User: Which sequence fits this backbone?
């Protein structure tokens, strides 16, 4: 398991990513995945920052094995050193159990001083309301800026009157969002004929309303999404098309969706960014500005960690017929 995790980290890091939030299934009485992820996190900490999420894939209350529920295994994972409390309320057996899981997620996070990252309403069901419950609970506890709602696919299908009422509440709570463009596009709308829903949450509206939202890659070669590579330039490209973020004012800030916005929800403020006194951690893209980087879907030429190269590549050179001077017949 550690070998596969390291391979995934290497894939992601080869595109320039240095910060990972790893949703790690804890619905296993032996917590094999959690233990492996914690070891990989600690072994690679000098080069890659990994936050391990105790994620109950099969439910906090829907899962029970060897006398342990998913809720019990989350708490065991936190005691072992997991960084975030995860959840999947729409996977519980009833709305009541889903709501109960959210309250317990928040309680455990506060008790153990952990961040929260919940797979929330990753469904096409327009009646799904676990996002509203999560937002209300963290707003009540003053814990919104430490909480992330991932996916929230059904919110993209919700009634506009409801959605825009919730926008005001999201701004009040400080709740963060993560959208996974490639996975959400691939997985959602399966029961739709036509028109077929995109499956993404309201990213454009979050941006326009100053609600923190980031793009992520949810899967690296797994049964939900077999084509994951960890290339966030590809994620950004898909996301901008699917959410229609190509207005003139969008291009200068679009990179925030795969950089600063994610750093904010991961609480990396003290170490992330280009300013005096912070670690020399940064990447170099093969473009003169952010617009050209997005238009040309450029490669990462170098990744620097604490002032040292994790990798660097030569800028590609091409020799084609278009490079020939018509007068001298020499290549330019």
Assistant:
């Amino acid at each position: 398991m550690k070998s596969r995790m390291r391979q995934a980290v290497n894939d992601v890091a080869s595109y320039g990513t240095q910060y990972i939030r790893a949703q790690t299934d804890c619905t296993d009485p032996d917590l094999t995945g959690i233990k492996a992820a914690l070891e990989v996190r600690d072994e690679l900490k000098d080069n890659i920052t990994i936050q391990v999420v105790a994620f109950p894939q099969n439910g906090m209350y829907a899962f029970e094995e060897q006398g342990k529920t998913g809720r019990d295994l989350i708490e065991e994972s936190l005691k072992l050193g997991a960084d975030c409390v995860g959840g999947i309320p729409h996977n519980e057996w009833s709305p009541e159990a889903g709501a109960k899981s959210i309250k317990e997620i928040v309680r455990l996070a506060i008790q153990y001083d952990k961040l929260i990252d919940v797979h929330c309403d990753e469904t096409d069901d327009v009646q799904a309301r676990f996002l509203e419950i999560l937002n209300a609970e963290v707003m009540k506890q003053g814990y919104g800026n430490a909480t992330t709602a991932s996916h929230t696919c059904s919110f993209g299908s919700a009634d506009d009157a409801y959605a825009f009422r919730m926008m005001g509440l999201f701004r009040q709570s400080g709740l963060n969002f993560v959208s996974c463009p490639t996975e959400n596009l691939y997985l959602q709308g399966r029961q739709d004929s036509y028109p077929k829903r995109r499956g993404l949450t309201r990213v454009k509206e979050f941006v326009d309303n100053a609600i923190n939202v980031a793009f992520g890659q949810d899967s690296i070669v797994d049964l939900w999404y077999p084509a994951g590579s960890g290339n966030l330039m590809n994620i950004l490209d898909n996301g901008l098309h699917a959410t229609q973020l190509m207005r003139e004012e969008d291009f200068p800030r679009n990179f925030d969706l795969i950089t600063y916005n994610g750093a904010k929800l991961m609480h990396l403020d003290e170490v992330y960014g280009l300013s005096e006194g912070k670690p020399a951690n940064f990447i170099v893209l093969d473009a003169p500005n952010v617009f050209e980087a997005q238009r040309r879907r450029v490669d990462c030429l170098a990744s620097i960690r604490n002032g040292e190269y994790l990798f660097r590549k030569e800028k590609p050179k091409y020799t084609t017929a278009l490079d020939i001077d018509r007068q001298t017949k020499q290549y330019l």
Remarks:
- The two ends are 51 Å apart (CA to CA).
- The chain has a mean pLDDT of 95.
- The first helix runs from residue 2 to 13.
